[in-house]
Each structure stands twice: as structure tokens, then as C-alpha cells.
Amino acid sequence: MSEKPLSADEVFVNLIRVAKEDPKIHSFITTVVAMKDFDRKSLINSFIKEMALKGAPSEFIKAIAALREPLLAEKIKELLQKEN
């Protein structure tokens, strides 16, 4: 029996949860969302390729890929800052 794919909201809730639980992911996401658009998109593209080669879960890759969007990156930045 295959699992139901996660909705976009569930993916981002999980991404924030993982960021809170894993200092490396938290640091990466915090750094990424603070970057200028071009730099953020370039880094994310490289990271996505690396994670795909390492067999990372597709939901995680999709969530990271969505951080290329400026409005979403800003919202994630705000959420993470509120947690600190």
C-alpha cells in the first residue's frame, strides 16, 4: 500500500519542524532565506541536485525547492526568527 503524498502545507510544516529539531537543517534554511534572490536560487539549485543524488525524500526536495520563491522564503525567515 503506497502512502498518500503530502500536501504543500504538510511539507512546509514538516520542514519547519525538522528545522527546529535538526541544527544543521535550521542553519542551512536560516542562511538560505537570508540571501538575495539570485544567490538563494543558485544555492538551492545546487543543494537540490546534491540531495537528489543522495536519495533524499522527494517531499524534502520539493520543500527546499519552494524556498526559491521570494515570498515563501520571507515567510519562512519570519517563522524561524519568531522561534528564536
In short:
The protein is mainly alpha-helical. It has helices at 8-21, 23-33, 37-53, 58-66, 70-83.
Index terms:
84 residues, mainly alpha, 5 helices, 77% helix, globular
Question: Would you give an account of this structure?
Answer:
The protein has 84 residues and is mainly α. It has helices at 8-21, 23-33, 37-53, 58-66, 70-83. Helix 1 (8-21) crosses helix 4 (58-66) and helix 3 runs antiparallel to helix 4 (58-66). The chain is globular, with a radius of gyration of 13 Å. The termini are far apart. 13% of the residues are buried. The model has no long low-confidence stretch (mean pLDDT 85).
**Which residues form runs of ≥5 with pLDDT under 50?**
none
What share of residues are in beta strands? Answer: under 5%
Shape by Cα distribution? globular
The figure for the number of domains is 1
Q: What's the total helix number? A: 5
* Through-space gap between termini: 40 Å
Number of strands: 0
N to C succession of SSEs: HHHHH
Rg estimate, integer Å: 13 Å
> What composes the largest sheet?
none
What share of the residues lie within helices? over 70%
Mean pLDDT: 85
Structural class: mainly alpha
